[in-house]
Amino acid sequence: MTDVLTDDSALAEPVAMPADLPDLNPETDDQDREEIDEADDQESDDEADDGLVEYEAADGKTYRVPAEVKDGLMIKAEFTRKTQEMAEVRKAIAARDEAVQKTAQRQAEFANDIAQLGALNARLTPFAQVQDWPSYLRQGGAAAQADYVEYQAMVNERDQFAHSLGQKVQQRAFDEQRETVEAIEAGRAELAKHIKGYSPAKLDELVAFAEPLGFSPDEIRQAEADPRSIRVLHLAAIGQQALTRQSTTQKLVKQQAIQPAVKVSGSAPAAKSPERMSTDEWMRFRNAQVRKAR
Q: Which end of the chain is less enclosed by CB atoms within 10 A, N or C?
């Protein structure tokens, strides 16, 4: 068995500490923490000064992009918006032109139909001289029979054309009414994009605003088919309201400027101290005291 010997002199020598052992001095720890925090702050500043700026895209998301890229994106977004607005304007103008052309075509067709009906009636004019067809047929023989056949054929042709024309007029009126309703619905949808809170109540307000200007309620309500007219009328109403508020404010300012100062009834002027009185004032003050003492 081997005995274990303890060397007191060896125990007395200092033990070498590892080089990577952290310093346990509190002051040193605080200093290290400050340096770490400063390094983090510097890193954050570097990130903030990295030349990137925030840009909110059309989808609502925010991105960090270079400043020059943001300018380009904003210009592109503005160009896109203007392009869309111009496309809407061109679409509205095209729809309006199409409606005008369709209306003009219908009017031309109707005028042509009326002319044909007039021509058919004109062909019947010579037969209007016959007051009594039975007598004319008995006395006129074969010629009268031929006239009557021709007359009946013309009357049937005229009546059939007139009946067809009546049906066409009814269908045309129905189509125009349907197209007007569709145009008004499309106009309301378009107006809702540009006028906040657009509704029948808002239209009633515009009707009330336009009526003193000489527009009838039907004219304003039918104008929904052309949203441009309602938008212009809406802007005019806003301008009128602004002018009214400005005029009211100016009147109030003028009234306040010329309004006299309010005096409290029953209040006596503050008495002046005897030390500040002149000789005459002090004499009057003293005489008044004497009179009160008597």
A: N
> Which of 115-151 are b and which e, b meaning 16 or more Cβ less than 10 Å from the residue's Cβ?
eeeeebeeeeeebeeeeeeeebeeeeeeebeebbeeb
Q: What's the sign of the alpha-carbon dihedral 248, 254, 260, 262?
A: positive
Look up tokens 């349907």; give the residue.
Answer: 178
pLDDT digits (tens, 9 = 90+) for 221-257: 888 888 888 988 999 999 988 988 888 888 888 877 7
pLDDT digits (tens, 9 = 90+) for 13-39: 444 444 444 444 544 455 555 655 565
Q: Measured at the alpha carbon of residue 47, what is the angle toward residues 45 and 50, in degrees to the nearest 5?
A: 105
pTM of whole model > 0.70?
A: no
At which residue do the structure tokens 């004219």 appear?
Answer: 219
Other CB atoms within a 10 A radius of the CB of residue 38 amount to 10
pLDDT of 141 higher than 80 = yes
Helix H or strand E encompassing 122: helix 67-123
Cα separation, 41 vs 47, whole angstroms? 10
Quote the CA–CA distance of 175 and 181 in Å, as a whole number.
10
Residue among 81, 55, 49, 48 at smallest CA distance from 69: 55
Q: How far apart are CA 243 and CA 289, in angstroms?
A: 63
**AA letter at 229:** S
